[in-house]
Amino acid sequence: PWVVHRALPLLAVERARRLRETAAVATSGVVASLALSVALTVMVASFRDSVTQWLDAVLPAPLYLRATGGGPDGVHLTPAFVAGVRALPGVARVDTLRALPLQFDAARPPVTLVVRTLQGNPLPVPADAVPVYVSEAMLDLYGARVGQPLPALAQAMASPEAQAARYVVAGVWRDYARQHGSIAIDAEAFARLTRDTRVSDLALHLREGTDSAGIQAALRALAEQHDLAQAIEFATADQIRATSLRIFDRSFAVTVWLQAVAIGIGLFGVAASFSAQVLVRRQEFGLLAHLGLTRAQVLGVVALEGLAWTVLGALAGLGLGLLVSLVLVHVVNPQSFHWTMDLVLPWPRLLALCAAVVAAGTITAWLSGRAAASADAVQAVKQDW
Known about the structure:
eight-stranded mixed sheet
């Protein structure tokens, strides 16, 4: 009803309706390419949003200090240096952290044991058990379950007292930094079991109004007093977040090219389909020219057909892409990388992608139909005389 009183749109819409097989051939490439692009866009957006939320959760302090160099366990900060950091004016609280590798399985990479200050237990554990928190990879790779013991951790510990302890999984957390599994344990419990109080990282919570640059200068002076000037580095939470997201964007930059290639292949299919149709529709366009349509009007009919078909293809591709993205986010990623993420639908980007495909498909159809509107098309009608 929208086009019944307009000749050119009516011609385009009726042909698209009554020659559906031709439309299916022309738009199948658009559907496939747009579905791939939509799925990649949703997956990357979901992953980036989840990583951003994860960074906000694991970076609660405004300033971080890290010991650099050394072996797998890194260089350790001396107790005197840590005590000096706690005594600095402007420092409200210092949280310590240490990450050390534990070999659970000789056929797999080491699991990372994260020793840090933990507060509260999401799940109550027996009084004689030590609560630990495992990453999602531990569920898939080592069969860890919430509320169940984790005997593999005891076997991997070095000290006899730590080996005799009973560890119970009190919670599961997302860890996008360690794909092969990680376990978090409270620093006090670890020190009690191993008599090891070494740390490699400090998270500094500053008092309100304290200048971060001034604290860094004081830390450098303190490090020189303890011969650690060349073994430490600083970073603010904003710097770590920006660096992490920049690495993320660079890692997934190839998906932009994949989307461009996929859409290019789909548009090539549209061009090939319309070019093939041009050869068999020369008599039709010649008849339209005899009826009084100008070259621009004939091209308009072809462009409107391309618009109608690519709109349908874009809708189908969008729906199919959303279904594929569900599989990527909720099935492929957990099975391949052993972590989960929240589904995020970036509607402005998806709609812009669909609009770009529709515009490109319409222009492609118009360019493919230029040859059909030439003067030779008029002569083709003679074959019907």
